[in-house]
Amino acid sequence: MTAAPAPLPVAGERHREADLHAFCTAALRAAGAEPETAEAASRAMLHGSRIGVDSHGVRLLDHYVAVIEGGRVNARPALRFTDGAAAVSSLDADHAHGARAAYAAMDRAMEKAALYGMGAVAIRNSSHFGAAGAYALQAAEKGFIGLAFCNSDSFVRLHGGAERFHGTNPIAMGVPVEGEDPWLLDMATSAIPYNRVLLYRSLECALPAEVASNQEGHDTTDPHAVDMLAPLGGAFGFKGAALAGVVEIFSAVLTGARLSFDIAPMGGPDFATPRNVGAFVMALTPGAFLDETDFNAAMTRYRQTLRASRPAPGDRVMAPGDREWLVAEQRRREGIPIDPATAQAFDRLAARYGLPRPKPVAG
Amino acid sequence: MTAAPAPLPVAGERHREADLHAFCTAALRAAGAEPETAEAASRAMLHGSRIGVDSHGVRLLDHYVAVIEGGRVNARPALRFTDGAAAVSSLDADHAHGARAAYAAMDRAMEKAALYGMGAVAIRNSSHFGAAGAYALQAAEKGFIGLAFCNSDSFVRLHGGAERFHGTNPIAMGVPVEGEDPWLLDMATSAIPYNRVLLYRSLECALPAEVASNQEGHDTTDPHAVDMLAPLGGAFGFKGAALAGVVEIFSAVLTGARLSFDIAPMGGPDFATPRNVGAFVMALTPGAFLDETDFNAAMTRYRQTLRASRPAPGDRVMAPGDREWLVAEQRRREGIPIDPATAQAFDRLAARYGLPRPKPVAG
Question: Model ipTM?
Answer without folding.
Answer: 0.96
